[in-house]
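ok, trying the design again with the full structure, not the truncated one.
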């Protein structure tokens, strides 16, 4: 992003040096505003957002047009409704490559914020291609519970679906903590919910979906996925809880 501005954006279109200077100043102000917003959100989750996140944050924010986000492809198998309300969807996701990072912070919110920041750097040019890779949704987090599904373990995996054009040859991350994994084709049972995601809200959604499903025992009992369609800094997030059908 920095290489493109202001040269390619302003030179050759009749702009004066003063106009270019003003555009640069506005660019810097916008970057500062976004960084300070993320830093204030981070403090709420006890996460420090470093200054080197300013550029990835600005790049992702600019590229946040919903039409430009590639959704992870799936085949809808079944929709279960009750009096017009959608209870859950049964979907099949195909085999695909994901960039994954394991986190083990004290709180779930800390893990997803820190994991998401590392993935943002990878998406925003810190990869072997040197290119902005593009946003895909949802960003997913794999969580684990004890056998009785009464509490979550601290270890989570935050994962980013690689856009289809990069599936065959994913760019290598510069961050050695990020691993490219190929996930097998999977059937999931998905239920939507809104708001923050923390240990309490996730356990509530797990128990709710377990009650709604006719045969929850067909799914893994200790591994679940939280799918996030909105960035972790958003107040009213759109999320889904996914149960994974046993292979």
């Amino acid at each position: 992003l920095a290489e493109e501005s202001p040269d390619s954006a302003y030179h050759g279109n009749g702009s004066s040096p003063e106009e270019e200077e003003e555009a640069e100043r506005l660019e810097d102000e916008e970057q500062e505003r976004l960084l300070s917003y993320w830093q204030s959100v981070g403090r709420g989750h006890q996460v420090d957002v470093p200054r080197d996140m300013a550029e990835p944050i600005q790049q992702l924010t600019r590229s946040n047009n919903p039409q430009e986000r590639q959704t992870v492809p799936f085949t809808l198998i079944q929709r279960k409704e009750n009096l017009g309300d959608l209870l859950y969807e049964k979907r099949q996701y195909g085999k695909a490559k994901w960039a994954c990072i394991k986190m083990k912070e004290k709180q779930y919110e800390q893990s997803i914020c820190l994991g998401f920041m590392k993935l943002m750097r990878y998406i925003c040019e810190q990869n072997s291609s040197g290119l902005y890779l593009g946003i895909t949704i949802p960003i997913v987090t794999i969580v684990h519970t004890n056998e009785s599904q009464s509490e979550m373990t601290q270890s989570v995996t935050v994962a980013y679906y690689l856009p289809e054009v990069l599936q065959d040859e994913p760019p290598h991350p510069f961050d050695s903590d990020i691993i490219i994994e190929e996930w097998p084709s999977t059937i999931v049972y998905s239920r939507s919910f809104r708001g923050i995601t923390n240990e309490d809200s996730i356990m509530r959604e797990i128990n709710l979906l377990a009650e709604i499903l006719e045969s929850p025992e067909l799914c893994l009992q200790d591994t679940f996925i939280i799918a996030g369609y909105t960035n972790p800094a958003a107040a009213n997030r759109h999320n889904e809880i996914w149960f994974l059908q046993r292979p």
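Keeping the full-length input from now on. DSSP finds five helices and eleven strands in the chain.
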